[in-house]
Amino acid sequence: MNKITIQKILELKNSNKPFATLTAYDYTSAKIVDSTGIPIILVGDSAAMVMLGYENTLPITMDEMAIFVKAVSRGANNALIVADMPFMSYQTSVENALTNAGFFIKECNANAVKLEGGDNVIPQISAIVQAGIPVMGHLGLTPQSVHQMSGYKIQGKDENSAKEIIKNAIAIQNAGAFSIVLEGIPTELAKIITGKLVIPTIGIGAGQFCDGQIQVYHDILGLDNTFNPKHAKQFAKMQDNSIEAIKTYIKEVNSKKFPSEKNSTKLNPNVLKTIS
Ligand code: KIV
Q: Of 123, 216, 257, 262, which residue is least crowded by CB atoms under 10 Å?
């Protein structure tokens, strides 16, 4: 086991080579992602949608997230595991934020937590960091604020909102965060923020100039053809491949090709005699 440290993540800022990170939600996908050497696995609250079928990320609970974080921590020995704090697990008070962040570290084996927001969550970020828990910030298009944003819209397109995001990014860094996700903001704004910060920026729908990128496991593997957002690229066609494989399985069962002798166990002939 060679766990990636926060120090190593900070060093990625100056490596001059953008790094890729990914979400995972269960033991098997975590094992697959971890085997590639990816430095960070985010157990995203996108689990609400891709694992539980909710319409957005708002309904997922700490209990539901805990199952995913524990499973990922059993599957990934090397990557730094970041647990995404679900809606209303940290907005309500600094105390709740601390309790819930602590739960992810103590009970679920996460190595860090992520929370969405800017100046509204600075006291929470400071308190969690002071408790010794690494924090990843998340600015721009923050899905937990979908109603306030009136939908999933690119943020920071005008002067005021761009300046606000820059100000918040610096405040998050000053509060002690070790990295920041920049989601759904213009490329140039992400480039400016990346240049101003000493901690790594990790983009999703924020262009090519961030220090790293984050994507959702299901999106890059093409596990759901009905959802193909602009910020994602399908590097495989896993839905099509899975359907093809399942159809072949059905065909082989129907034609008695599967299970073959290779997949079966023969009874000892002496035993067979006694029971037939
Ligand atoms: O929940 C999630 O998966 C995320 C990433 C896409 C940044 O927050």
A: 262
CA of 114 to the centre of ligand 1 (A): 9
Domains and CATH numbers, the chain: 6-236 (3.20.20.60), 241-275 (no CATH)
Q: Closest residue (by CA) to atom 1 of ligand 1?
A: 44
Q: What is the pLDDT of residues 114-161, one digit of tens each?
A: 999 999 999 999 999 999 999 999 999 999 999 999 999 999 999 999
pTM above 0.70, yes or no: yes
23 Cβ closer than 6 Å to some ligand 1 atom: yes
Task: For ligand 1, say whether the CB of 84 is within 6 Å of any of its atoms.
Answer: yes
Give the model's pLDDT for residue 237.
98
CB 45 within 8 A of CB 57: yes
> Which are the catalytic amino acids?
183
Ligand 1: which residue has its CA nearest to atom 3?
44
